[in-house]
Amino acid sequence: MNFFEHKCRARKRSILRQDIRAIQKLSDSDDPYSTSKLFLEGFNRITLEKEHLKDSPEFMGVEDDQIVNCIKQIILYSTVKSDVALRLTKAVHGSGNLEILPFPPAFRQYLRSRGIAFAPLRSAIAWNFLKAHLLLGGLRRIVKILLVINRKRPAHEISFSGCSVFMRSEQFVNFEPNEIEKKWSFVSWYRKSSFSHISNIIFHRLDGYRSVGELPEGLSISDTYFTPSCVPEKKWRLLFDLARAALKAVVNFFGRKWWHAVLLREIADLAHARSVPKDSFAKQYFIPLNHFMIRYLWTYMAEVQGSEFAVLHYSHSCKEFHPISPDYKPPNYFYAMTSWPLHVVWGEQHVEGLKENGIVNVTYIIDPPIFYKRPETIFPNIDGPVVVLFDIDTPTLSGWANNGFRNPFLCRKSRLEFIKQGALAIRRAGATPVLKPKTLENNYSFWAECAKANDVFLLPEEMIATVAIENSAAVLSMPFTTTGAVATKLGKPSCYFDPTGMLDGFDHYAYSARLVVGIDALDIWLKDKLCKA
User: Fold this and answer.
1) How far apart are CA 382 and CA 415, in angstroms?
2) What is the C-alpha separation between 273 and 226, in angstroms, rounded?
């Protein structure tokens, strides 16, 4: 190892120690979610000069508040992917060193008023780098739109009129076309849902995603959200709007109207949407949970024309919990800043959890849960009754710091105790413990050793949870992951098992399954359920 590599590694170890100290101080504080609150309060300080918005023709068809919400969502989504939450946590609870915080001026002024020290010049530079990144993304989108509208229109261009579109997820197109109804549960869920009055479905394909070949009747794949071909007489108007938007974004990059640079991609899509025929939009759009952060500006215009947009909450584990008291409601900046109008959920308790997280003033639709199913996944032949253990990905201390908060229960120690005590109770009940890990964390050998030490059969990571549940006599889940509720829906005895006792009294978080605290209570529960089985 040369001198430079040695210094780099020493620097990384020093930064990690600072991270751990910061998150430990945050955990021990009176409010372990103070960083999350700072995000929400800071973003509430971002205001725009609305008289300028009203005078901007590029925002035609969109309300001022919708524009402001979109700006906040884009900045949040662009910053939390890095270690900004960790920097803010360290600035509040860490070593006190100056930190680089790439936020708008109003946000930085609010942090300064709270006594949070940061490097003003470097933070301003970081903010301009973020704006430049978003500006370049907008310019790339303009080039893509120009290529689309100037290409020859395909003879059989997909018609979005009267269709339902599943937006922005590779999960929706990862299937073999001749087995889609059997293998991919989003389609079978849709057929049974309250939205099923529309028979044609389009899946949005991520850029560069592989083709799946010929599809069954009623299913299509597209890389656009609406019919891209513009009305010929509106083409020159579109070119003018795109040129004006790009010029404004560049001219106002350092000025008071900096949002033109941040929103250039959204402005370009909105201009494109205004230039297409009125029947270019689908009747329904479904947004997967992992892409619900940003609501695009063009969707407001499409909504006025009759389209509906709904977020699919196919996961039920939506509640943040911290063992302060059962009534404590931690703020969640991801949920609190969403602005999609419809949310498809499992039941009333799911609704209450999302409201606690900040998703209010929206319409909730209760529909059947969405389960992943791949019947070709073969469950191994195991003698005797099988009880499956489902764990949870547990972030490291630095991982929690990157979120800006920490849940003391969700750590590797709790995960290992869940496996150890759960396996012991299962064997004492006369059954075979089987572990279905959330992921193997690129560390298969560690979990293989863990399974061997606890005499647990380790299922492969690619095994679908529903297949493991259907082949089990009972299911134990770490609180409060979705598999506990899925097992109950599939008719299997199911409980959430807390080996630490931290969550005693948090029964109201458990959905459809009982919370069992401690190995003695688990022994009683397992013997009762396995005897009945």
Assistant:
1) 24
2) 8
